[in-house]
Amino acid sequence: MVVVLKPNIPKEKRNELIREIEAMGVKVQITEGTQTSILGLVGDTSNLNKYRIASNEIVANILRVQEPFKKANKMFKPDNTIIEVAGRRIGEGYFTVITGPCSVESEEQIEGIAKAVKTNGAAFLRGGAYKPRTSPYSFQGLGLEGLEYLKIAREKTGLPIVSEIMSPDLVQRFVEDVDIIQVGARNMQNFVLLKELGKTNKPILLKRGLSATIEEWLMSAEYIMSEGNEQVILCERGIRTFETYTRNTLDLSSVLSIKKLSHLPVIVDPSHATGHSWMVEAMTKAAVVVGADGVIVEVHNNPAHALCDGSQSITPEQFSGLMDKIKKLVEIEGKVLVE
Ligand code: PEP
Ligand code: MN
Questions:
Q1: What is the pLDDT of residues 275-327, one digit of tens each?
Q2: Which of 18, 83, 157, 224 has its CA 20 to 30 Å from the CA of residue 235?
Q3: Domains in the chain: ranges and CATH
Q4: 150 CA to middle of ligand 1, Å?
Q5: pLDDT given for residue 227 in this prediction
Q6: Closest Cα to atom 3, ligand 1: which residue?
Q7: How far is the CA of 134 from the centre of ligand 2 (A)?
Q8: 237 CB under 6 A from ligand 1?
Q9: Residue 272: CB within 6 Å of ligand 1?
Q10: Residue 4 has what pLDDT?
């Protein structure tokens, strides 16, 4: 439920109303506009005395929020969220490119790729230290050693780092080591993990689950936000359909759905969505045009010998060409390409 206040209400009167509502057993989240404030009511609102609230002299309107997600809901916060990480922005008005290999393979590999993508305008470096592989016999990532190499690459290039977490016991370590914590598609509904991440103040890149609906995806964001961490970046990475020619089916319309339903930034992963390196550029361009706030793209110095996801990885040279192409598109969209 959302309570819209009349314009220019003194703070004391507003706080009095908030105390009254909270005494009814729900939490109140305030969104301040230039003239009007909005009170978002979080919790079980079924037993609230709505008439008492509506009849308060400072209340202009009461709106019911149908969707089960509250903090992620655009009704609660009409202005889109912009997340700032290490001086770089993700959200409305900006287009942010996160790039790097699927997995960190060695110190030289991640450093080499980091330097190449930095030269070509990447805003963030990605690299998996912990890899959720379908087969237990596949390369599982270098673990903590991988995180150390990422930190070295950050130090040498100045690029902030993004890496995937898989279990709650590593939350503190990731908070200390990385700039954005990625939650992969397979862990989108690892609620224990989401709650732990909600207690941190790190931005979380939340990928859409393999077969998750938009509402399930937003409810996962809600898990993080309900614990206090409102810095969530959503990532559309393709969903599972009957089609097998592509690794997944890129649901570009989800970007539009998210923009309508939520104030959170949403980016696109054209690499995992397609599984084919030759599709990545076109899908990145499509992501810009559909209104995504950025992309996360896999780049590898030697895709044919990559330990993970080589077939969908583009080379640093291809990445350079891609950046040239999207620069113009981002400009046409009236956005700033984040560097
Ligand atoms: C990844 O980013 O390397 C990854 C494993 O992605 P997803 O969780 O989207 O499959
Ligand atoms: Mn990958």
A1: 999 999 999 999 999 999 999 999 999 999 999 999 999 999 999 999 999 99
A2: 157
A3: 2-63 (3.30.70.1140), 82-337 (3.20.20.70)
A4: 17
A5: 96
A6: 102
A7: 12
A8: yes
A9: yes
A10: 94
Q: Which pLDDT score, from 0 to 100, does residue 33 have?
A: 81
Pocket test for ligand 1, best of 182, 272, 295, 298 (most atoms within 8 A of CB): 272
HEC letters along the chain: CEEEECCCCCHHHHHHHHHHHHCCCCEEEEEECCCCEEEEEECCCCCCCHHHHHCCCCEEEEECCCCCCCCCECCCCCCCCEEEECCEEEECCEEEEEEECCECCCHHHHHHHHHHHHHCCCCEEECECCCCCCCCCCCCCCCHHHHHHHHHHHHHHCCCEEEEECCHHHHHHHHHHCCEEEECHHHCCCHHHHHHHHCCCCCEEEECCCCCCHHHHHHHHHHHHHCCCCCEEEEECCECCCCCCCCCECCCHHHHHHHHHECCCEEECHHHHHCCHHHHHHHHHHHHHHCCCEEEEEECCCHHHCCCCHHHCECHHHHHHHHHHHHHHHHHCCCEECC
Confidence at residue 197, expressed as pLDDT on a 0 to 100 scale: 98
pLDDT score, position 3 = 95
Residues 6+ apart with CB under 8 A from 254: 208, 214, 236, 266
**Ion ligand 2: protein residues whose beta carbon lies under 5 Å:** 102, 309
Q: Is 326 in the pocket of ligand 1 (CB under 6 A)?
A: no
Task: Determine the pLDDT at residue 35.
Answer: 80
- Provide the pLDDT for residue 84: 98
Sole residue written with tokens 């599709």: 279
pLDDT at 34: 79
Which atom belonging to ligand 1 lies closest to the Cα atom of 238?
Answer: 9
Give the whole-angstrom CA distance, residue 265 versus residue 236: 11
Residue from 98, 131, 134, 164 whose mutation best tests the ligand 1 pocket (most atoms within 8 A of CB): 164
pLDDT at 218: 98
Which residues does the chain have with pLDDT short of 50? Answer: none
Enter the pTM of the model: 0.94
